[in-house]
Amino acid sequence: MYEDTIMMISNLGFPIAVTVYLLIRFEKKIETLEIALNKLTNVLSSKERK
Fold it and tell me: Which of the 8 DSSP states describes residue 26?
């Protein structure tokens, strides 16, 4: 039982670490994209008013 648990952790440790790393990186990219979309929306809405 204990050996199975250790084996499972060792087999899944790397994929979990990669997943966490990618989620953190994608979160930053998504936040940057959200800011850019908000700026674009503001520019487009200000042009509609003119």
Answer: H
Please give the sequence-ordered ranges of beta strands (E in DSSP) within 1-50, or none if there are none: none
Residue 40, H or E segment: helix 2-49
- Structural tokens at position 18: 């990669």
The DSSP 8-state label assigned to residue 50 in this structure reads -
User: 21-45: per-residue pLDDT in tens?
Assistant: 898 899 999 999 999 999 999 999 9
Considering the entire predicted model, what is its pTM? 0.57
| Euclidean distance between CA atoms 4 and 7, whole angstroms | 5
Dihedral over Cα of 17, 22, 25, 27: its sign: negative
